[in-house]
């Protein structure tokens, strides 16, 4: 039996509600597949913890997390705690300390009725964004000079190392080669005359080792346009931290909204645990109402299973999500249904169980 140790950080707002449904799916898999077992350890870190202790996580939090196979994060952020504190002192700390330099964001339309784009099919909106996740514009480098004075100056420095840039681009080439898809690099070299010129040069250099991978390169403004007008241009996309953050929200919009947006923060070398999360935020306005959409959190469980080498369960989860998106009565209100968060999770487990005989 394979046993996977999972650290739960439900976090803030609707985080605990959607994580509970993801855990429900994992527990169902454990019941359905005698070859898999999960152990869960929950940590109370987040904004409430900050308001009580003055910090987003325990001082030895990173050390505590090191022994897990994966981290399952709900959401971070709540009124009363500045966003830069909630983000930097928990989520970004984990990403950086565990060298989770690959961020995987699938842009996959599972129900054509959900896209706001006219005449676009599921075949035309189906690609993977690979976002650099450890440096770039989110490196945290900079300075604040002459604060409060007329000559006040703020410097925010994007950091693009040879190591960081090359490894994310190489990862993307490998994924494009493995899946026999095209690879598109998105940058802004015409305006960012150091960082993005360097990015483009590394993309070309690494590409020489992958002559069979067909490549494209777009400026980020053009790519934003094509995400909406011609998403069929894209199969695998690689881009920087900031551009990836923005573009993948456009991707969520064209596939059904943030309630379906998932992300995996991967340390490919597996030297440290990787982290899986819905990326819709904490949504404090609907917290506690039982109407939060848990599909993104469940989709991140699919990504987790793929990472564990249990692709059959990863595919099964994605297939059940697709089936559920055609069952309007089983969906939460943001997708036009009337189900509660818990009811959606219960129905999901029912459908997953019905498929289990094909998998074990």
Automatic annotation (TrEMBL):
InterPro entries: ICDH/IPMDH, IsoCit/isopropylmalate_DH_CS, IsoPropMal-DH-like_dom, TTC_DH
Molecular-function GO term, any one: tartrate dehydrogenase activity
Listed SMART domains: Iso_dh (SM01329)
Alphabetical UniProt keywords: Manganese, Metal-binding, NAD, Oxidoreductase
Keyword Oxidoreductase: yes
Catalytic activity: (R)-malate + NAD(+) = pyruvate + CO2 + NADH
PROSITE patterns on file: IDH_IMDH (PS00470)
Cofactors, names only: Mg(2+); Mn(2+)
Name of one Pfam family that matches: Iso_dh
The name this protein goes by in its record: D-malate dehydrogenase (decarboxylating)
The species this protein was found in: Sporosarcina jeotgali
């Amino acid at each position: 039996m394979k046993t996977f140790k999972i650290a739960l950080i439900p976090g803030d707002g609707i985080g605990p509600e959607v994580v509970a449904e993801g855990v429900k799916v994992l527990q169902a898999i454990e019941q359905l597949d005698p070859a898999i077992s999960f152990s869960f350890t929950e940590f109370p870190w987040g904004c409430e913890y900050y308001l009580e202790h003055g910090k987003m996580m325990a001082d030895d939090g990173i050390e505590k997390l090191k022994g897990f196979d994966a981290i399952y994060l709900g959401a971070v952020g709540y009124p009363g705690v500045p966003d830069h504190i909630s983000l930097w002192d928990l989520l970004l700390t984990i990403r950086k300390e565990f060298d989770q330099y690959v961020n995987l964001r699938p842009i996959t339309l599972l129900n054509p009725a959900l896209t706001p784009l006219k005449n676009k099919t599921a075949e035309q909106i189906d690609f993977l964004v690979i976002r650099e996740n450890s440096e770039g514009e989110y490196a945290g480098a900079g300075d604040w000079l002459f604060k409060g004075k007329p000559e006040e100056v703020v410097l925010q420095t994007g950091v693009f190392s040879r190591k960081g840039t090359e490894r994310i681009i190489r990862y993307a080439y490998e994924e494009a080669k493995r899946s026999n898809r095209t690879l598109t690099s998105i940058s802004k070299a015409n305006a960012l005359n150091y960082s993005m010129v360097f990015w483009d040069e590394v993309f070309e250099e690494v590409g020489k080792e992958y002559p069979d991978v067909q490549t494209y390169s777009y400026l980020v403004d053009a790519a934003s346009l094509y995400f909406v007008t011609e998403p069929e241009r894209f199969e695998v996309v690689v881009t920087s931290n900031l551009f990836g953050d923005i573009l993948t929200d456009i991707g969520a919009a064209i596939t059904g909204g943030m309630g379906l947006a998932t992300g995996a923060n991967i340390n490919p070398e597996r030297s440290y645990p990787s982290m899986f999360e819905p990326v819709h935020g904490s949504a404090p306005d609907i917290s506690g109402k039982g109407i939060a959409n848990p599909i993104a959190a469940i989709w991140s469980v699919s990504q987790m299973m793929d990472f564990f080498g249990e692709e059959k369960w990863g595919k099964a989860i994605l297939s059940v999500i697709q089936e559920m998106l055609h069952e309007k009565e089983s969906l939460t209100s943001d997708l036009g249904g009337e189900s509660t968060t818990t009811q959606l999770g219960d129905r999901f487990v029912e459908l997953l169980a019905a498929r289990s005989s094909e998998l074990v």
